[in-house]
Amino acid sequence: MSETAETRATRAVSEVVDLVSALIRFDTSNTGELETTKGERECALWVAEQLEQAGYETEYVESGAPGRGNVFARLRGADPSRGALMMHGHLDVVPAEAADWSVHPFSGAVRDGYVWGRGAIDMKDMVGMMLAVARQFKIEGTVPPRDIVWAFVADEENGGRWGCQWLVQNRPDLFEGVTEAVGEVGGFSLTVPKPDGSERRLYLVETAEKGLGWMRLRAKARAGHGSFLHEDNAVTILSQAVARLGTHTFPLVVSDSVAEFLAAVAEESGLQFDPASPDIEGQLAKLGTISRIIGATLRDTANPTMLRAGYKANVIPQTAEAVVDCRVVPGRQAEFEREVDALIGPDVEREWITKLDSYETTFDGHLVDAMNDAILAHDPAGRTVPYMLSGGTDAKAFATLGIRCFGFAPLRLPPELDFTALFHGVDERVPVESLEFGARVLEHFLLHS
């Protein structure tokens, strides 16, 4: 079989699987607490070593606390007058319970055509692809069209307080000249059926993401003996407020990115989506597992995740607390907070533990064209489409510097793989062929960006 763009073996393609596997073997579990989060320094220093072996000068930075390791390197481009492009990836992962997994979550095992382990798709796959292409460019003397800043950062899984947020606030010089950035949770394929019985692969480019807010609710009342009558009970007051909030359905809002996505899917598949329909969730279910993400972008969400109250069975506590994970559609923050206040009532206080704004950009311009061209060069049956992420990424922090951000970690996925279930899930894994495809696409994209 003759070699084509879709099958060409490059240095990056030959290295990417080993790099991803090695990255997974670093246990960089982020617990959300400084004292128990681990592994970021060791992983970052290893990344720096791989870059330095290829000839880069790197800068290692600890972002406001010991061990929160970040690595930066810059590859000079042909046109220094153009704004630089930043490729960013986070090194931390959410924790994993080994007893629940088919393989050890930090083994990086290569088995059955997949690389297994915590971070395989969130996001050591993209970090490995970035590292593979960065090494290839430097070793082979490739000069891209513009400067590329390679950024490997800490603490994304806890909102970036000890990662991108600290870096933006304290080391803005690291981002000097950067006008656009590309990160995670985009570029993966969604296979949709066409009316003629064939299939079309849509590659989802993240152009928007909901606001992220972790909110603490607190009720205070009179403490007392558990055997007495207590109409003024902090646990009861809090529980009722949490129940009202957790069962509330926020209004439907269709942002531009969501509307463009639905229109593209309808055009390719013949499926129809009516945002005004009371059964819009049912219509979205026809998309399969990706409907989890798309459905969550149609409205705000406020999901209670933590409760804390009391210290003994027969003592009514003075204080009860809850934590709620809030995700807010762009443009809805003020109205969202008004609705929350009405739901929880005057007897419950609220405060933001973490509050990061939503983000949305348009699906146009040279960089978007370069993404689409790169996909078509390696999958002629593909098409890039915009979408909104229901979660959040480090793009929220970088956008505050005026950087235009996208999510584009290209992966051609098997149609039967429940990709969205693998994010923070058990037996997280990424297909070997998808990593090799991603390395090829990323190389093409960066050579034409």
TrEMBL record:
Q: Which InterPro entries match?
A: ArgE/DapE_CS, Bact_exopeptidase_dim_dom, Peptidase_M20, Peptidase_M20_dimer, Peptidase_M20A
- Is Hydrolase there in the keyword field? yes
Q: Which residues form the Peptidase M20 dimerisation domain?
A: 207-335
Q: Which segments of the protein form a coiled coil according to its record?
A: none
Read off the CDD domains from this record: M20_yscS_like
| Cofactor dependence | Zn(2+)
Question: Keywords of this protein's UniProt record, alphabetized?
Answer: Hydrolase, Metal-binding, Zinc
Looking up Pfam families in the UniProt record yields: M20_dimer, Peptidase_M20
Q: Name one GO molecular function term.
A: hydrolase activity
| Domain of life assignment | Bacteria
- UniProt record similarity statement: Belongs to the peptidase M20A family.
State the protein's name.
Answer: M20/M25/M40 family metallo-hydrolase
